[in-house]
């Protein structure tokens, strides 16, 4: 009967070590797969999530600043319209008087020698 116990003990030890080995193989395969994915992503020259979030935050801030400045410009234009007196419209040009013919200038006299 003890032989059977030793046999079962050996099988239990073998199963435990096989389970541990399988767990190590699983961990190793996961690490290898992650490494390969990282290599592919680096070759694709993708941005990191941190860089993306930083640029997105900058764009949101720039957009809100642009909207604020646009509102300020409208306010200033309204203020400027209130402060400047309205200019009178320019008078329409008078019709030209009848054209007079220019008199011909006398030709210069040339001395004969």
Properties at a glance:
68% helix, 113 residues, 2 domains, single chain, mainly alpha
The mean pLDDT is 82
Percent of residues in β-strands: under 5%
Indicate the structural class: mainly alpha
Quick one: how many beta strands? 0
The number of distinct helices, counting runs of at least 4 residues, comes to 2
Intertermini distance: 163 Å
Task: Pick out the low-confidence regions.
Answer: none
Count of separate structural domains = 2
DSSP helix fraction: 55-70%
Secondary-structure element series: HH
Shape label: elongated
Biggest beta-sheet profile: none
Radius of gyration: 48 Å
Which helices and strands, and how do they pair?
Blueprint: H1 2-43, H2 49-83
Characterization of this structure:
This protein has 113 residues and is mainly alpha-helical. It has two domains: 1-46; 47-84. 68% of the residues lie in helices and 0% in strands. It contains two helices and no strands. The longest helix is centred in the first third of the chain and has 42 residues, at 2-43. The N and C termini lie far apart (163 Å). The mean pLDDT is 82.
Summary?
The chain is mostly helical.
């Amino acid at each position: 009967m003890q032989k059977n116990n030793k046999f079962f003990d050996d099988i239990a030890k073998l199963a435990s070590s096989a389970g541990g080995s399988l767990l190590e193989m699983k961990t190793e395969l996961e690490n290898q797969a992650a490494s390969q994915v990282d290599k592919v992503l680096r070759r694709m020259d993708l941005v990191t999530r941190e860089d993306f979030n930083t640029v997105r935050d900058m764009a949101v801030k720039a957009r809100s600043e642009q909207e604020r400045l646009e509102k300020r410009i409208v306010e200033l234009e309204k203020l400027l319209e209130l402060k400047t007196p309205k200019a009178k419209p320019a008078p329409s040009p008078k019709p030209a008087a009848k054209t007079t013919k220019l008199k011909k200038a006398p030709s210069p006299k040339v001395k004969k020698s």
